[in-house]
Write a structure and sequence with these properties.
single chain; 135 residues; alpha/beta; Rossmann fold; 59% helix
Length: 135
């Protein structure tokens, strides 16, 4: 199973033909994708119309959702942020740190197309799926 970050979903939804797009398309076809709650929220708030929102919600509702464990995941996200800062990397968003914490807890691999997640994954030893943005 893999967890796809919002950046990989954007590649998929825009049909960019990027490595992330192809990797996510294949994983969706094999039913090997887990959708974290924060990613679902980021995708839904990006809908540009009510019709797009409904279509996106229908598609995402068919995926297994990884729920945030508030006490554990937010504390772990702070740890991710602090460990990155300790080696000179400043993550630009707490959602990336939260996603990293959730992936670490789940033991899945991460598919992304995001420079920050490339750095975070490297620092935290997160397994990165083929098709992800390289460092």
């Amino acid at each position: 199973m893999l967890v796809a970050d919002t950046s990989a979903w954007v590649e998929y939804l825009r049909r960019t033909e990027s490595p992330a797009h192809h990797a996510l398309r294949a994983a969706v076809a094999r039913d090997e994708v887990v959708l974290p709650e924060p990613v679902k929220a980021e995708l839904l708030v990006g809908a540009r119309s009510s019709a797009e929102f409904r279509d996106l919600q229908r598609m995402l509702d068919g995926l297994p959702v990884a729920l945030v464990h508030p006490r554990d995941d937010f504390d772990a996200a702070v740890d991710v942020y602090r460990r990155c800062r300790a080696v000179g990397i400043t993550p630009r968003g707490l959602v990336d740190c939260l996603l990293a914490a959730m992936v670490l807890r789940s033991d899945h691999s991460l598919l992304h197309s995001d420079r920050d997640l490339t750095s975070i994954a490297s620092v935290m030893g997160i397994p990165v799926a083929a098709g992800s943005l390289a460092g």
